[in-house]
User: Fold this.
Amino acid sequence: MNSQWKPRTKAVHSGTRRSQYNEVSEAVFLTQGFVYESAEQAEARFQSLGDDEFIYARYGNPTVRMFEDRISALLGYEDCFACTSGMAAVSGALTALLKAGDHVVAARALFGSCLYVLEDILARFGVEITLVDGTDNAAWDAALRSDTRLVFFESISNPTLEVVDMCHVVKAAHAVGALVVVDDAMATPVYSYAQKCGADIAIISTTKHVDGQGRLLGGAICGSRELVRGPIETYMKHTGGAMNPFTAWTHLKALETIDLRVRAQSDAALEIAHALSDHPKLSAVRYPSHPGHPQHELAMSHSTSAGTVLALEVKGGKAACFKFLNALEIITISNNFADAKSIATHPATTTHQRLPQEQKDVLGISEGLVRLSVGLEDVSDIIADLRQALDMAG
Assistant:
């Protein structure tokens, strides 16, 4: 790979491995095992793997390796381990890097499954968890200790779109010797700034923008070669979290268009935020790229766009919000985001319903909150659909 390539070129060409047939499209190697020319070669390979050597699909596969090289190049990291899902990546990275007695500081605004991994699983095995307001730099500074092993947060929180001052948190964490692990799903692989800010590990749910078309689950742990091919690979290959080759191949093809798709969706998201910012049926429109977002300046210091998702606060609570959702014609009701189709989600009753009400209140997950994932439809049609549905909200 040419290190001077721009991100869009890396998304098309990085990591390419061609077989003896010199195919144009990447080959998919649907095999779980590999044959050796001799017993001696098998012994040598199990002792030490070369860069292009494989022994079992749980440990590595040529198609998966192509994807790992390509996504890590796009995000600016040395290496990557591709996983079965975004949550497999989160739980795998955290479990691989932590042990009983370690201290973790994490942002309070996390996806429900991430909170479960921290508070129910890791805490059960002796990891001490401290949750803070991710937008409060002083809270991070106060919570970090000399024995803090790791900090964890979403670069942009799901679903309320809070923005963490990543550069500040990274600097503070590194000052006490802690690793920084970032859930980068909402920032998107196109606009990711985790590596630029110095985060040690960036995790993405490739189910989202990489696949981007509602087909396959996947996840990726990107970081230094020392961390990825050390404790993370060791844990993942023994516990079975590796991505399957067909998913990796589909992701490779999707990466060829990710830059075009995400930029179009992000541009549309900003246009929607401008169009609805003063709508009488909405008490708030939250999108970090919009000047009305309270952390707009911080968000723009990180990247030129805040991604493909907005948060809308519908006046009238759950009843009015459900009327709005049920009146949508183009936008679908689902619980995914970052799809080619626009999707509306009511977090309080779906993705975050299991959180205690007190926690929902702290995080700003109200009965009127809608997470809007902007798809690839014509933006004027999306805006028209939102407006007619809001008219029905009561």
